[in-house]
From TrEMBL:
Its EC number is 3.1.1.29. The gene is pth. Hydrolyzes ribosome-free peptidyl-tRNAs (with 1 or more amino acids incorporated), which drop off the ribosome during protein synthesis, or as a result of ribosome stalling. Keywords: Cytoplasm, Hydrolase, RNA-binding, tRNA-binding. This is Peptidyl-tRNA hydrolase. Gene3D superfamilies: Peptidyl-tRNA hydrolase. Monomer. The lineage of its organism: Bacteria, Bacillati, Actinomycetota, Actinomycetes, Micrococcales. It catalyses: an N-acyl-L-alpha-aminoacyl-tRNA + H2O = an N-acyl-L-amino acid + a tRNA + H(+).
Length: 205
């Protein structure tokens, strides 16, 4: 697990008005990972053409057996809107020479109950525009997803409206735990690999 960096991307929309939205939970997880590692996000204008399209932090995650620092990781938050996330992800993957199997996308997931997590590689995007654009830009769906459950919208509320609303007061009570658990899941993926991480995350009790 030392042959090159991982690229961990937190999906969301830019701007303070979106920061607390369900759609931005991926970026909340990236903020937690940066906090844990004492890292700070900065623009890399030379990487992403003339205009920075992401803020990144280069760090290491977790601890290897024997106490050595964990794998090198590039934490990235696109500063584009969700539905055009693919360009920044592909540019960063190319710049840091990260293959798709070492790209980890952290995102909200409507098809998973609130406060539950699922990990997978590849498969469909489930109508998630950020993932769809990423698959198109990378030319493959074969990347890792840390799927953070936000649940289904109540009643007849449109899904697009639901994810662009802040978490409810009741949900916010569990939100710190959820963000922490998702950050743990990312660490497990990069240190132990996806299969071992799935066993840990998907096994309850």
């Amino acid at each position: 697990m030392t042959e090159g960096p991982w690229l961990v991307v937190g999906l969301g929309n830019p701007g303070a008005q979106y920061a607390g939205n369900r759609h931005n939970v991926g970026q909340m997880v990236l903020d937690e990972l940066a906090r844990r590692t004492g890292s700070s996000f900065g623009s890399r204008g030379g990487i992403l053409s003339r205009r920075p399209q992401a803020v990144v932090a280069e760090t290491r995650l977790g601890t290897l057996p024997g106490g050595a620092p964990g794998p090198r990781v590039v934490l990235a938050k696109p500063t584009t809107y969700m539905n055009v996330s693919g360009g920044p992800v592909a540019s960063l993957a190319q710049y840091y020479d990260v293959p798709p199997e070492r790209v980890v996308m952290v995102h909200d997931e409507l098809d998973i109950p609130y406060a539950e997590l699922r990990l997978k590689r590849g498969g469909g995007e489930g109508g998630h525009n950020g993932l769809r654009d990423t698959s198109k830009a990378l030319g493959t769906k074969d990347y890792v997803r840390v799927r953070v459950g936000v649940g289904r919208p109540p009643g007849r509320m449109d899904a697009a409206d639901f994810v662009l609303r802040d978490f409810s007061a009741a949900e916010r009570k569990d939100l710190p735990w959820l963000v922490d658990a998702a950050a743990d899941a990312v660490e497990l993926v990069v240190v132990d690999g996806l299969e071992k991480a799935q066993l840990r995350v998907h096994t309850k009790g």
